[in-house]
């Protein structure tokens, strides 16, 4: 996929047609160190980013912690911009993120953030989506990304 930044390892997952890795490669950076393995799949005009919750992602009520869900959403904004959109916003930053938690996440099931690009202007990308586990909605969200003004950030 030509829109995926060079610092993202985007490789087909063996035995899982349509799924690709979404990995920054450095295990000490936030994406990998905190959220773990991430996978991505394009679904028409949408992008599905999947994480596999672990015990460290659970709260004391044995549900996926809201902070882990927010981290997934933030990365999903960027994955959606690159996979489902037409942007090459490698140096983009989150300007706004609005989230409504509507259900509890089960730490024993994959957690998916499904995004779509609503609109893209010269410098801004508007994204919305839901965090789901199968048919169960965990959260709804919308966000605005600002693309970098220079290639070197």
Automatic annotation (TrEMBL):
Residues 63-139 form the Thioesterase domain. InterPro entries: HotDog_dom_sf, PAAI_dom, Thioestr_dom. Keywords: Hydrolase. Gene3D superfamilies: Hotdog Thioesterase. One of its GO terms (molecular function) is acyl-CoA hydrolase activity. It comes from the Bacteria. This is PaaI family thioesterase. It comes from Qipengyuania atrilutea.
């Amino acid at each position: 996929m030509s829109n995926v930044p060079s610092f993202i390892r985007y490789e087909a997952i063996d035995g899982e047609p349509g799924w690709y890795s979404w990995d920054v490669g450095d295990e000490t950076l936030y994406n990998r160190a905190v959220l773990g393995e991430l996978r991505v799949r394009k679904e028409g005009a949408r992008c599905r980013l999947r994480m596999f919750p672990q015990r460290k992602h659970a709260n004391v009520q044995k549900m996926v912690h809201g902070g882990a869900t927010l981290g997934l959403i933030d990365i999903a904004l960027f994955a959606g911009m690159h996979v489902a959109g037409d942007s090459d916003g490698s140096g983009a930053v989150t300007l706004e993120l609005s989230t409504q938690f509507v259900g509890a996440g089960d730490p024993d099931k994959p957690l998916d953030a499904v995004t779509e690009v609503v609109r893209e202007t010269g410098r801004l990308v508007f994204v919305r989506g839901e965090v789901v586990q199968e048919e169960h909605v965990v959260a709804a969200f919308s966000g605005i990304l600002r693309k970098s003004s220079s290639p070197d950030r």
